Request: fold
Amino acid sequence: MQQEAIVLHKMRHSHLLKSIFGILLLLLSVTCFTGLFAKENRFNTNRADAHAPISIMGDHTHSKGESMFSYRYMYMEMPKLISGTNSLSTSEVFNSDGRYVVSPTYMYMHMHMIGVMYASSDNLTFTTMTSFRYNIMDHNIFSGAVPLIEANEGSETFRARASGLGDFSTGFLYKFFDRKRIRIHGGLELTFPSGSITIKDRIPSPGGSQRSLLPSAMQLGSGTYDFIPSLTYQHQFRFYSYAFQVKGRLPTALNKQGYRNGHMAENIFWNSIRFVDWFAMNLGFSYIFQGRQVGVQNDLLLNPPFAPERRTVTTAFGENYGGDRIDVIIGMNFLVHTARINGLRFATDIRVPVYQRRNGIQIETIIAVTVGLQQIL
Reply:
């Protein structure tokens, strides 16, 4: 039965990849066909399709002297447990090899992001961004973990919360090709560990309900200085444009709590259809890979004293971080040009995972929604 399940999973994965490849081939065919009717010879930034879906960062540069203020709000929902590509129940988590006494069951995150861009020349644009995050995670307690249930006033469920500033980032984008409606630019950002990794909340513990350090999945920052290199290609036609971006995130060392997040790589393809100059729709795909967490989360209780042969919670262990995911991105861009308002962009997009493979035991993302405003000054 297990072998049949593996074969079935491989077949589904193969069909998924073939479907994605087919859609990409269709989009590229449309691109070539549309290009036959192109009349513009320069990349036009005053079009609604000149920017990527709003959840994609570092997608464009500016002309000399331009600056841009941006605000984004993102909501992400994770309501299910997953191991590899298989859904899990909490009872399966409690009876897994880890024999955990606490399992996350649901998480959602709200994030507010503020960014500023400034172009010192037509080729060089500087960027900076910070964020405010609000995380909530629900948990179930193993029915045999009586001391925890007693500390939780007899309930087998509890909720943990964390909120505050996230990591701060700054960097630059350099445009090194701009010809015949094609633009190519590279970027490099550095994130600073301004987000706390020592947030505590009141949770059930063997000694009673008390404020305890939360695992890294609930913390507000990475705790490390991370490099984020990127490369972006954009091609614009009369009513249509497409682009792709490759990006990575490379933590430099272990943080003060003794761990670092796994290296991350993301490949994104998106295309936009411009119905009028002020409105465009986007369709894109994103493939994200992240390695396992490295190190050990210090100051966390890893084995409960009343059952030392068991583990506390899945999020306390680095083996339960990382994996890969394919998202479909659907979005809209609106561009406002009036006598009083010029260069104001409103955009929204939705990311829906169509494939996920998670290391260890994690909670599965089902949707991420981003809404944003960008104002050129």
